[in-house]
Amino acid sequence: MMLFDRDVEDFNLHTMMELQRREISQEQMRKFEGYMAEIFDALGMDLNTPATEETPQRFVRAMFDATEGYDGDPKLLKVFETECRGGSDCRLSQVIEGPIPFFALCEHHAPPFYGLAYIGYIAHASLRCLSRTVWRCT
Fold it and tell me: What is the DSSP string of 4-69?
């Protein structure tokens, strides 16, 4: 949703940028661990050895951690003024943020991949939550 200064007056800024925390209950975690145990067993992994008996739990936790990003990070709620103060000395100018390191899982087969992202924007009178844009990369 794109908001302009006049629109912000009609909304509570905190409500517009509310943090979304992911939560998985202990019951869900046990269920997911059971699913992974079934998958590993079907693929031939012996889950009855000291080295593998907790592999389903470790795998589910690793997947949760690998896809966490900045969920719930309060820094995402900051709003910053740009250096542009209006008037004739204020020209539109390009700003590039980066490198922004990211790590993700491919949505098709789920192997991990990583890289660096760069975000460009045109600076003007105000900038609402650039960190949210950066967050989308991570």
Answer: -HHHHTTS-HHHHT--------HHHHHHHHHHHHHHHHHTT--TTSTTTTTHHHHHHHHHHHHT-T
Q: Do 133 and 79 share a structural domain?
A: yes
Give the pLDDT confidence score for residue 41 in this predicted structure.
Answer: 95
- Same domain for 53 and 100, yes or no, is no
- Tens digit of each residue's pLDDT (9 = 90 or more) over 90-137: 666 677 788 888 887 776 667 888 889 888 777 665 555 556 566 566
C-alpha–C-alpha distance, residues 87 and 49, integer Å:
71
Q: What is the CATH number of the domain that holds 126?
A: 3.30.1130.10
Q: pLDDT above 90 covers what percent of the chain?
A: 26
